[in-house]
Amino acid sequence: MTKRPAAKWLVPLEWAACQDFKIDRARTLPLVLFENPCSWQDEMLSSLREAGWEWRVTFESASLDAILAATQSGLGMAALPAEAIRNCSLTRVQNVKLPPPPRIQFGLFRTSALPSEARTVLETTLDSVFRQGTEALVA
């Protein structure tokens, strides 16, 4: 993107897995990841390495639905927003001394073709929604 976002916000990720997923510190941690590495994914993998966790990628996809399905089926664990965990009957992975997953940044980019009144309503609404469950940063 070459333009600055009209609004941006941070979404904290949480470790998630299916209900009966077992983590054994003596075994390699199976991970479900998005395709194409990015800065937050690199940060997540680096923090696992620094904390002494061995990991392997068991599934990769560019599709959030595929990531959720793979995690639900027990192929591995994933770092996901809390809403995705709640909406997909996944369990938060806690109490296993994993490093915290990163926060990811989203942005709202607008076109100048959108009437200014519509832009104002859209930005106000989105700002309100994202302030409720995330850390919002309005540009």
What does this structure look like?
The protein starts with 6 loop residues before the first strand and ends with a strand. With 139 residues, it is an alpha+beta fold. Helix 1 links the parallel strand 2 (29-34) and strand 3 (55-61). Helices cover 32% and strands 28% of the residues. The protein is built from 4 helices and 7 strands. It is elongated and about 55 Å long. Strands 1, 4, 5, 6 and 7 form a 5-stranded antiparallel β-sheet that branches. Strands 2-3 form a two-stranded parallel ribbon. It has a domain at 12-104: D-Maltodextrin-Binding Protein, domain 2 (3-Layer(aba) Sandwich), CATH 3.40.190.10.
Give the SSE layout:
Layout: E1 7-17, E2 29-34, H1 39-50, E3 55-61, H2 64-72, E4 78-81, H3 82-87, E5 91-92, E6 103-108, H4 116-133, E7 135-137
Parallel strand pairs: 2-3
Antiparallel strand pairs: 1-4, 1-5, 1-6, 1-7
